[in-house]
Amino acid sequence: MTPSSTTKPLDTETSSEEVAKLPTKRSLFLTGRQGAERRFVFGMVTPMVLYMAVFSVLPIIWALALSFFDYSARRTGGPILGLGGENPFVGVENFQKMADFSQEAPLEVRQFHLSLRTTLLFAFLVVPLNLAITLPLASLIESVHQRMRPVFRNLFFLPVLTSAVGVAIMWGFILSPQRGLLNALISKVLGETTIIAWTSDPSLTVLGIPVSLFAVLIAYLWQDLGYNLIIFIAALQGVPQSVKEAALIDGAKPWHLFRHVTIPLLRPTIMLASVLTMISAFQVFDLFQVMTRGGPNDQTRALSLDIYESAFRFQRMGWAAAVSVVLFLIVLVLSLVQSRLLRSDWEY
Amino acid sequence: MRKTNRSMWAVTTLALAMVAAACSGSSSSSDSASDGGGSESGSNASGEASGDISGNIRVWTHQNDAFNSGLQDLATAFEGENPGVTIEFETFDYDTYIQTLQTSLPAGTEADVLQVFGSWTCSYADNLATVPEDVLTKAKAEELFFGAAIDGYTCGDSLYGMPQEFNIEYGATLINEAMAEEAGIDPAAGWADWDAFIADAAKMSIGGQGDMTRAGYMFTSSDAIPYTFYSMIVQQGGSYLAEDGSAFTIDTPEGKAALEQMVAMVDAGLVDPVLYNDLNNWVGDCFFEETCATGLVGPWVIADYAGDFPEVAEVTSYAALPSMGDDPTFVADSGWGLTVSNGSEVQEAAWAFVEYVTLNEANAIQWNAGAGTLPALKANASGANADALVADFPHFATFLPLLEYGQYVGDLPDRDLIWYDITYERILQVLQGNESITDALANMEREANETIG
Predict the structure, then answer these.
(1) pLDDT at site A17
(2) Most buried residue, A42, B29, B349, B367, by most Cβ within 10 Å?
């Protein structure tokens, strides 16, 4: 930007007459081209700031406040926003309850522990699986003929545009025990009727992880991987051709090129994709709600579902707010750690 | 570094938005909510429309076409008889309605007349008006209405509303007559005891645990399990809730016997609880898709499914279930009815309308017939009114004689939590073989008692 008289800093030699000639702050804002620009910017930004303030900042502050109260919308409460009275201030009691890991802990506390475990498990499975599929797939798509690339890109991106509820219903149909496509296929292959309750048998586990959780995970990956795929394709297109050619001249095989050139160059993109995927995995609600409703036996009760049930089904708003604060802190910490671990000190 | 900063912003923004999304609904209320006011009413509330009352009555109901068109007809008739009264309806879809009631009542922004499910009434009682003595006394209400229908509207010694229907989910089971005939069973003959029922139902099952393709008796849905369990307890003369509501008593010999009876049904191959539950093969779906021969659910399900499955509806009937005691006692929620806000400025007119709809036998049965619901008034469960109802809804013939045996579920502190998250979940675990009867009873009792403040 070109410095202008209005932005020129005053030095000690500036005379009092010169100071008097300088436009005031008010005229800086209201007159001239810069004033017009500022009004334009102000006009464009204000609605968004107001929107954020009303629909994001205020609810966050309200949620934070509620987490220190035993609040339920069913009760009348005090005169100020219904806080106090029948909705008493409980300090950090909600958070203290979360630390009760005994068998005698109240039901909502045990459900919170289960939900936390399920959500962490889900998120930590989703991120590596998503990256393990999307990164090589993006590389493969980039290697096909230029004409075919848009076809594959669109094909893989289509599920991202699909409604999550629709995806959940579709996968529910595929995994239905008696009428599902998957069991029909298995029955065909084995030559005998096979009925497996993929989403409702609590005794079905793989390496201690409930199969019902894998069922939701597969549906989620199917829907979500197109997003990262597009990010990686864009990043791959940004990898300098000269670097690749240099590696090939040095005798690098395609795998070596991918492993030692492409992946290191994509580190910032991998960081971005993993952070966004992690956050998104913590937010999943609709797939759990429609496919399993948290069952069987609470094995797929994610934190988002737990918050929803506590807040809107059982009207334990204070408790739900406390759980959402914990969820926020977990996402924040994990995001910070991830960005620190995957930080690159250079860019190409 | 710049990219990292952008990512950090993205992280922070998304995380904040996530918290906001999780919690921003806490203080929401319906956009159609108002201050609950209205013009002043005058005069009496004698039951029969007197013509000298006035005011604008706002009525909130949940969206159910059959329910609301019947109520609208009665409102129009009431307005005709009371020229000074106007009635204005506002309807909400079911989930929104629950949240609207929960948030509007404490805030005092509700309508004058509120349609509520009887079992919710006491949790809203602080903001509801008691029925005036000159409209109906508690003693008279107990005389006129079935106990299961009116008890939910009674909190302590006060009456807070009047029921329009008898909500029934237990006592009789759906049965596919074609499948029964194929298995050589005559449902009309009934069953003397559970052993006889189990023997017949087992004949209609196809496949066993793990490969069942048709359940002989589907009772493992989230309503059927609690209604079965608690009904079996009361049939044996037991009780699961102390009279003063101070404690649950589930871990009892009666509770154990009930649970053992349910396990015996699973062991006999009537149903595979892993394949048949709320997640897969919900009772209405499985019955009308013909993957169960019988299923435990109230008669309302027929209206919901008959249109899509007319062939199955043709061969569908209800058959009374056996009892674990001398009488076919069962537990039931108090069904939908009408209450009046204690903040209403037109209470007299509002009560007159509620009385007109619920206490007038002809009006009440007119609404039951239109809505396809069982009558809450004892007088309408027999005689010409009942015959007319059965002519429209033949399935009601099985239920009408059972209504007198209905027992209100009780003032449960958090009915849905106890019903679905505690009783259904625990008993399903027992039936699936993942928890012992002893542990489940102890855990259910402990968890249910935690809900008592």
Answers:
(1) 60
(2) B349
